[in-house]
């Protein structure tokens, strides 16, 4: 199947720069989502740690910043690997391409 961009430069109703066009909304959403996930991980580390590699300092701010678990897992998924490798390594090239296109 051949994809036609026609004269508008759009691909199936969206432009290749869709991430650039909505970057402010994307940034706000990801920032709020990251704060919620960090709070969930902090509470999980306090009450239901996955491994013995956990600890607290007694300071909520310091524990929020540094984390309470070394290798946090949710439903068997390693959160650090998912966010750093799967999500991060996928988004970097997409953002690079989106910002470099005219």
Q: How would you describe what is shown here?
A:
With 102 residues, the protein is mostly helical. The chain has a two-stranded antiparallel ribbon with strand order 1-2. Helix content is 57%, strand content 4%. The model is unreliable at 1-5 (pLDDT under 50). The protein has helices at 18-21, 23-47, 60-66, 79-100; strands at residues 73-74, 77-78. β1 (73-74) and β2 form a beta hairpin. The longest helix is centred in the middle third of the chain and has 25 residues, at 23-47. The radius of gyration is 19 Å and the shape is elongated. The chain is built from four helices and two strands; from the N terminus they run αααββα.
List the helices and strands and how they pair.
Layout: H1 18-21, H2 23-47, H3 60-66, E1 73-74, E2 77-78, H4 79-100
Antiparallel strand pairs: 1-2
Gyration radius, in Å: 19 Å
Helix content: 55-70%
Low-confidence stretches: 1-5
Which whole number gives the mean pLDDT?
A: 82
Distance between the termini: 25 Å
Record field, number of beta strands: 2
Look at the helices and sheets and give the structural class.
mainly alpha
Please report which band the strand proportion falls in: under 5%, 5-15%, 15-25%, 25-35%, 35-45% or over 45%: under 5%
The biggest sheet, with number of strands, parallel, antiparallel or mixed sense and barrel status, is: 2 strands, antiparallel
Order of strands in the sheet with the most strands? 1-2
Element order: H for helix, E for strand = HHHEEH
Shape: elongated
**Helical run tally:** 4
In short:
With 102 residues, the chain is mainly alpha-helical.
């Amino acid at each position: 199947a051949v994809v036609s961009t026609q004269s508008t430069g759009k691909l199936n109703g969206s432009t290749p720069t869709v991430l650039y066009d909505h970057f402010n909304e994307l940034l706000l959403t990801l920032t709020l989502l990251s704060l919620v996930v960090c709070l969930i991980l902090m509470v999980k580390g306090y009450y239901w740690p996955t491994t013995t590699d956990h600890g607290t300092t007694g300071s909520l701010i310091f524990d929020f910043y540094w984390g309470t678990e070394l290798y946090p897992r949710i439903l068997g998924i390693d959160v650090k690997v998912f966010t750093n490798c799967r999500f991060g390594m996928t988004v970097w090239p997409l953002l690079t391409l989106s910002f470099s296109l005219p």
